[in-house]
Amino acid sequence: MRRLSCLLSVFLLLALKAAVPAWAQQPAAPPVLNAPPVYTPSAALVSPRRLADFLQAARQNSPLLRENINQVGQNRIDSLVRARQNGVQVGGIGSALYYPSITNSQGESVLGYDNAISNGGNYAAIAQATKPILNRFQLQTDYQILASQGQVLRNTGRLSALDLRRSITDQFLTAYAAETQLTFSRSLLTQLREQDKMLRQLVNGGIFKQTQYLSFYLSVRTQEVTVEQDRLAYRRELGTLRALAGVADTALVTLEAPTPPSHRPLAGLLAPAQRQYTLDSLRLRLDRQAIDATYRPKVSAVLDAGLQSSSYLPVALAHSVGIGGGLQLTLPIFDGHQRQLQYQRIELSEQSRRGYRQFISVQRRQQYEQLEGLIRASDALLARIREQVRVADALVGAARQQLATGDVAILDYLNLVTSYRTLQFSLTQAQTEQLRSRFALDYLAEQ
């Protein structure tokens, strides 16, 4: 008996030593990417002014991109967990069950289980070690699924970064257009105020009537209101831009003109938007493979050691110590043809995937060609507007000189100024739309 106890102790120590890495040891730190730091502008850059600065701030502050990085790290941890699950697993089993039995005066049982079945009780303390074996196909399939999920997460991160870049760029162009309009409104107001001083002298000299000057005076006050409206519009658009980028600043700064991107061809099948459907195809193939794996026989090696007895007496327990081992087989036989039904679900998903991919391919090509056409039309329109603005600027300058001598009526001068203001606004809008089309084309070239 003492020799059996020693052998049992040695066996338990060996089993625990082999199983400790599966549940007690700290695994090596997985290569999880660190979360990006919060954006903090340097002393030289108190507030972002360039498009590149806002894009950098948005990438560093975006919780969506940070979450995607964490999800990639979780996927790597899931791979480590799956590796541990395939190792030796040790568990303890303990039971202390008593089955009472009541008999009458003749010795017949009137209450209780049949003693041949229950033996009056069950007392056990067992350590059991299990290890899956002959599961190469299942393990390989699980690893492939986890790897595919990691690729999907990384591709989703690239798409999220591109969408963020598109949102920031579009809002930056809107804010820059508002700033350009504000700059022109201020410049025009300065000119009108200079003319106002001169016209007062001409009115006092009798060259113009007081009623004519009142029209000009009203135009100056109207331009002052326009400047305030443009300032509020710029402040609103700049605040929206900073909110999208996660920049905590309220100063009204001057944005730098964005550099138009170069013309690039449409992205191919390796682009994130196209690769998404390739990864979906791989996922569906692995889903089918996972279904096949669930219908394969599963074999596990089982080894246990401890004591089991039908009596709680020390003498009985001392003689009930033992060990056991063997193989455990799980084999599916019939499940109502669920396997074929799952195959049909995967086939329907594959049909949807092919439809989406074909549609997105045609749509992206159509958008790319449409943007190319818009850019060509915008270039032609900008050339015409710039020529008209040049002519209008010359006319306003000439009229300003003649206004000083009284050769041009005040109302005619105001009409020229109004036309010049309208052309300048059209120029700002056309420039913004051209830049927006160029950046959208660049987005399609990378997406």
From TrEMBL:
Its main location: membrane. InterPro entries: TolC-like. It comes from the Bacteria. Keywords: Cell outer membrane, Membrane, Signal, Transmembrane, Transmembrane beta strand. It is found in: Cell outer membrane. Residues 1-24 form the signal peptide. PANTHER family: OUTER MEMBRANE PROTEIN TOLC. This is TolC family protein. The lineage of its organism: Bacteria, Pseudomonadati, Bacteroidota, Cytophagia, Cytophagales.
